Amino acid sequence: MYDIELKYTWIFNQLPTFVEQDNRRFVSQKTGNLYISKVEVSDVGSYICEIENTVTNKKVLSPPTPLVLRTDGVMGEYEPKIEVRFPETVFAAKGSTVNLECFALGNPVPTISWRRIGSSFSDKVKVNKTDGVLEITNFQQKDSGTYECTAENSRGKNTARGQLVFYARPNWIRNLTDAYVPIGESLQWICKASGEPKPSHTWLKNGEPLIIEERIQVEKGMLNIRAVNLSDSGMYQCVAENKHGIIYVSAELRVMASAPDFSTSPLKKSIPVRIGSEVIIQCKPKASPRATFTWMKGNEILQENER
């Protein structure tokens, strides 16, 4: 994959003449180097490398490099020698654009071809006009595999091969939300992230590793706290991590403890009913933990019966 901030081009003799890439000339966007297979008289001249920062659009120029022909003989024919090759293992992020470079020197000028071992190319694969760059856009798991470049001329051929390995940084599938739990009740938080390799999940409380005990258990990203008490209140963080990245999500646990309070939902002072009809008298005090209820009629405790 290329450094997305830098773009390399080469000027031939003077602006605005740029080196045009073809099957003989190749500019690596990995190193910035210019490669010429089978130098010709027309290649003689001065070369300047132009480097552009594609974020700021600023450009810098290298000092001129002269190219002169040697007079002590002519290079004979020889088999391709691959000078630009991609690594044996390339880690490619989900959704990224992958560029594999391959270029060879040789006489006659080698032709470059590509193949995917054991499978055909997907529709997303593009090869540039010089065949020196294979591009895969929106890289996904199914694009993983072994890719091979072959440089060939009448004197022989050589190959370069590398493995494209898919990876994905952790990404939240299930997030956390703040919890308000009455004292004595239970809490369950589920924290889940996707990624390749599969991320591990750990829990923190107020920035420190969560202490596991009989009442507090963690399993596969799930946090369970039984019979919460006031000491459980705090800010909790779930951490998902694989070798390509780490992400955090936070939520607050508030443990509520209060005596029964009828101020927000008082009982009605009178309820008119007809003889023989049904009546429901609601009792909904605010209380943490949940209140137990007793009913009285006058000064006597009301007992349940068939009515």
TrEMBL record:
Record-level Gene Ontology MF annotations: cell-cell adhesion mediator activity
A GO BP entry: axon guidance
Protein localization: Cell membrane
Domain of life the protein comes from: Eukaryota
Primary localisation category: membrane
GO cellular component: axon; plasma membrane
Similarity comment: Belongs to the immunoglobulin superfamily. Contactin family.
Subunit structure: Interacts with PTPRG.
Protein name: Ig-like domain-containing protein
Species name: Scyliorhinus torazame (Cloudy catshark)
